Amino acid sequence: MSQSEATPCEGCENQKPELLQENEIALELLIHTATQWRVGMNGAYGYDLLAIYSTAEILGIEMTPALLDKIQDVEQLMLKKFEKERGNER
């Protein structure tokens, strides 16, 4: 790809990573449940897993241990991001 054909973010630190095929179902479920967080006085503290399981069922997605691991991995990354945004490194 030449310089003139390069995408604006190609090579920058904010470039989106390539989505692996084995993560497509997890991404679909996370997109549909992006607002399903348990929130307390100090902010979000975890996904509402009941809502995620219910949404998976509606979408016809089988909740497997591997899929749950992926959801929980993203949950932990997001919680760290929220903490950093609040100024409280985890």
What is the strand and helix layout of this fold?
Elements: H1 24-32, E1 37-40, E2 43-47, H2 49-59, H3 65-86
Antiparallel strand pairs: 1-2
Fold and architecture overview:
A hairpin with a 2-residue loop joins strand 1 and strand 2 (43-47). The chain has a two-stranded antiparallel ribbon. It has one domain (26-90). Helices cover 47% and strands 10% of the residues. It is flat. The model has no long low-confidence stretch (mean pLDDT 87). It has 90 residues and is mostly helical. The chain has helices at 24-32, 49-59, 65-86; strands at 37-40, 43-47.
Q: Can you give me a brief rundown of this structure?
A:
This protein is mainly alpha-helical. The chain has three helices and two strands; from the N terminus they run αββαα. The protein has one domain.
List keywords for this structure.
90 residues, mainly alpha, two-stranded antiparallel sheet, 47% helix
Number of strands: 2
Rg of Cα set: 16 Å
Give the overall pLDDT as a whole number: 87
Main sheet strand line-up: 1-2
Q: How far apart are the first and last residues' alpha carbons, in Å?
A: 40 Å
Low-confidence stretches: none
What percent of residues adopt helix (DSSP H or I)?
40-55%
H/I helix tally: 3
Q: Class by helix and strand content?
A: mainly alpha
Shape: flat
Which H/E pattern describes the elements?
A: HEEHH
Q: What is the makeup of the main sheet?
A: 2 strands, antiparallel
Strand content: 5-15%
How many distinct folded domains? 1
